[in-house]
Structure formats: C-alpha cells, structure tokens
C-alpha cells in the first residue's frame, strides 16, 4: 500500500489523500487550496497523478477545501463514482455549482480587465464540469457498511463538524491482509448545538487526524456567547453602528442564525435586524432545515419555537446584487452576515470596504482564518488592508470569537482519540498549519504513547504488506 498526501499536509486547505494498492487507487477528498498568493496557481496545476487511474473518491464533507477540485478531477479524466453522505450530496449540488460560477466569472473578469489572453484566463473548471461530476455522486447513509470495490469496505460515521460531515472507516484488503484506515475528516467541537457530537471510533491500523486547532483550546461556549452578546448589543445600541460577520455559507451561517434566535428566545437580544447576504447560504439553510433528523435535541426544540413565530428577530435573505449593494447604504442597526468566511472573495469584501473605516462598526470573526487571507490580516491587527485595489483603514473594532469554531480544539481532539481501545500502528496528523500539526503530534505521543507523524505536502508513505497491524 502507498499513501500520498496531495494537500492539507502542514496546511489547512487542499485536502486530498491518495491510497493505492495493486488492485485499487482511490482518493479521500479532492479540495481546493485557499489563502495566499500561491493558491490560484496550485488549483490550476495538473494533478500529481492521472485522474483516469482513480477508481473512486470518498468525500468527508462539502466544504470547498475538501470538495472543490472534484469538477477539475472530472475535466482531467476521472470517471469513477464519488461516495459521501446524503446531506453532503445535497450540499455539493449547491457548492460545486457556485464554485464553478466563481471560476467562470473570475476568468472572464481577468480577460476583460487585464487582457492576459485566453490561455492565462481559463477557468479552473466550468459549470459543465461541475454538472458532470455531480452525476457521479452516490449518497450513503451514516453507519451503513458499503463496498465500493472488491478489496475495500467503508463506513461513514458522524463527524459533528457541519451537516453531513463524516469520519471514514475504511478496510482495505491486500492478499490475505486487511488493514483498517480511519480518516477523522474535520471533527466538530463536542457539546455544541445543532449537530450531534462526533462518533467515537474504537480502533484503526492507520489513523489520519485533523489538527486545525491542534495547538490551542477554544474559549468556553458560555464565555463566547457572553462576548457575542456584548459586542452585538454595544455596537448596535450604544455605538449605533453595524455588525459585519464573515461566515462560511455552509455550517457557520446556520450556526449564527441559530445563536441569534436562541439568545433572542432567552431575552438577551431584542429587535435584531439580520441580513444574510449570500444566495448560497440561503440555499444551504433550506437544506439544513430539511435534515432535522440530524439535529441534536436542543436544535429541534429551537426549531419548534421558530415555527411558532413569536418574538423572532427580523431575518432577511438577500438575493440580488442590487439588494446586496443597498445594504451598504445602511449606516446603523444592521447585522450583515456574508461570505466568504475568510474574506477572500464574495460579498463580504464589499461590506468590509464600506464598513471597516467607521469606528462605530464591529467585525466579528467567527471561524478559522488561513494564512494569506484578508481575514487573517484583520485578526493579526492590520491597520490598513487592500480591498479591490483600494487602501482601506481599519477603524472598526475586530473581535475574534474562537469559541464558535466548528473544529475540535486540542482537548477535544485528544478526548476523541481517547476512545480508541487499540493504538494505531501509524498516526498521521494532517489538516493544520505546521505549528498546530506538530503540537498535536507531540501531545499524542506524550499522552497516548502513539507514534505520530506530520507528513509534508506531496510525501508518499509506503506501507509494507502485513505491517501496520494488518491481520
């Protein structure tokens, strides 16, 4: 067996791991790179393998850094099936079409504005590519075994990260030996509302664990909500400004809607005027509401309160570009939630352009900000930023609420690993910036006594027949 790390190795985005034996080659995730000047070039670069050689793909969840290059994979020759959960399959229909639209729009804008020529401005993939690859998706149920190949069995377990997110249990047979591979995917922080906690896993021969927050702890949810309430109320009621919230369209936007309603029900917010400026987030919210069975009990109770329609905040989903532009004329009293979550593209950049320079406003950062992104520069305290070629002073207050993260922190990751009754022979720490991955690997070795490796991007690891706990 050979395992090759094509992304999310000592970095957070571009998740893609290739597993190959003499009988089969498959991918776990096929995500886009995000953040930094090199991301666009890396997304355009040829795959380091022949897509035609890939038998199938397993997708852990719908976020673009895990799924966003699937249409390019199709464009370059892949024709196999893609397996994921039912909810993820629904979300991918929204997200891959949206991503393709962005690719085509960006390419056309580059052709018009920079006259770089057609070859330099080709989209990473087109809407036709996205539509084609969507036809390859097969939806699987949580916890149900499935065999995508004669030598492979899989089972998808709830990861508690976003709607439909999955931990992958994969059994791969080589000759008389069978090894169990476990990919954590992105794990959710336990004890959070809406989604269920990550499923415990008891054993693996080879383990792949994420480490987005592998070097830190989140602020408690109670303290995070206190800060959330204070910032929103002070900005809207005292400073008479607007609250601007960059948020991922999948997961974070729905969680924020939940908290605004939950805290209104508790009497901690009153008369809120919330705008969700993201057509994709509106579509994802509809999918979320249609999957109530995947919610935890508190979320189901809140859904019942919402359906009763008493004392609700004013919630407006903004569709058209003209409606979005009109929000920038609002000088006070608005909560504007828009994507992208790392402020790299989309409508949030327009709202930051019009609101960052005003001291009465606040920007709430509620998710991870990768290196090289506009969101990361704001978190790091930049006094001025460039948006659409303009130099913008940062006068609005910037508030980082890490307790909202949909990723498990170091303690939660170690607790999840604590459910294993048998130590993996090999543990690979992935999906984290180098410092976070190394820190988590060190803690795994110290606390669990396991051998933990932090692979490099492009690294291939051979696994000899009969090793790594093969039975």
Describe the structure.
There is one protein chain. By secondary structure, the chain is of the alpha/beta class. It has 2 domains: 2-216 and 406-462, Ribonuclease Z/Hydroxyacylglutathione hydrolase-like (Metallo-beta-lactamase, Chain A, 4-Layer Sandwich), CATH 3.60.15.10; 221-404, 3-Layer(aba) Sandwich (Rossmann fold), CATH 3.40.50.10890. The chain has helices at residues 39-44, 64-67, 70-75, 86-114, 127-134, 221-238, 252-265, 279-289, 297-308, 321-327, 347-355, 374-379, 410-417, 434-448, and strands spanning 2-7, 16-20, 25-28, 56-58, 82-85, 137-140, 146-149, 152-158, 166-174, 177-183, 206-210, 243-246, 273-277, 314-317, 335-338, 362-365, 384-387, 390-393, 397-400, 426-430, 452-453, 460-462. Helix 4 runs antiparallel to helix 5 and helix 7 packs across helix 9. The longest helix is centred in the first third of the chain and has 29 residues, at 86-114. The model has no long low-confidence stretch (mean pLDDT 91).
């Amino acid at each position: 067996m050979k395992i090759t790390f094509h992304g999310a190795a000592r970095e957070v985005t571009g998740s893609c791991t290739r597993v190959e034996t003499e009988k089969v080659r498959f991918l776990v995730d096929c995500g886009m790179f995000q953040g930094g000047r090199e991301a666009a070039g890396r997304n355009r670069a040829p795959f380091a393998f022949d897509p035609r050689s890939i038998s199938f793909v397993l997708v852990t969840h719908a976020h673009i850094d895990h799924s966003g290059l699937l249409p390019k994979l199709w464009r370059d020759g892949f024709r196999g099936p893609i397996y994921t959960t039912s909810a993820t399959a629904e979300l991918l229909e929204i997200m891959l079409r949206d991503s393709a639209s962005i690719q085509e729009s960006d390419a056309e804008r580059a052709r018009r504005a920079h006259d770089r020529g057609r070859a330099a401005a080709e989209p990473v993939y087109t809407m036709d590519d996205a539509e084609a690859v969507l036809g390859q998706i097969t939806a699987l149920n949580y916890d149900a075994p499935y065999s995508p190949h004669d030598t492979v069995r899989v089972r998808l377990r709830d990861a508690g990260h976003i709607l439909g997110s999955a931990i992958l249990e994969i059994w791969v047979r080589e000759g008389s030996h069978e090894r169990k591979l476990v990919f954590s995917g992105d794990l959710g922080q336990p004890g959070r509302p809406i989604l269920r906690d990550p499923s415990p896993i008891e054993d693996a021969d080879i383990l792949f664990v994420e480490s987005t927050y592998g070097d830190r702890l989140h602020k408690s949810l109670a303290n995070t909500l206190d800060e959330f309430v204070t910032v929103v109320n002070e900005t809207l009621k005292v400073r008479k400004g607007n609250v601007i919230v960059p948020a991922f369209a999948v997961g974070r936007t729905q969680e924020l809607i939940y908290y605004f309603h939950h805290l209104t029900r508790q009497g901690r917010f009153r008369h809120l005027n919330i705008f969700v400026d993201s057509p994709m987030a509106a579509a994802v919210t509809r999918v979320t509401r249609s999957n109530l069975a995947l919610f935890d009990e508190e979320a189901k109770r809140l859904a019942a309160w919402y359906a009763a329609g008493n004392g609700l905040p004013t919630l407006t989903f903004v569709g058209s570009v003209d409606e979005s532009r009109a929000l920038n004329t609002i000088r006070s009293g608005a909560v504007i939630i828009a994507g992208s979550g790392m402020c790299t593209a989309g409508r949030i950049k327009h709202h930051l352009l019009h609101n960052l320079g005003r001291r009465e406003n606040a920007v709430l950062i509620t998710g991870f900000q990768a290196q090289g992104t506009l969101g990361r520069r704001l978190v790091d305290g930049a006094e001025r930023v460039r948006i659409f070629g303009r130099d913008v002073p940062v006068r609005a207050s910037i508030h980082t609420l890490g307790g909202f993260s949909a990723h498990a922190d170091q303690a939660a990751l170690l607790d999840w690993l604590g459910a294993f009754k048998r130590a993996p022979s090999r543990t690979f720490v992935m999906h984290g910036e180098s410092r976070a991955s190394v820190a988590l690997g060190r803690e795994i070795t110290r606390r669990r006594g396991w051998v933990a490796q932090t692979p490099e991007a492009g690294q291939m690891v051979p696994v000899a027949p009969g090793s790594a706990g093969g039975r």
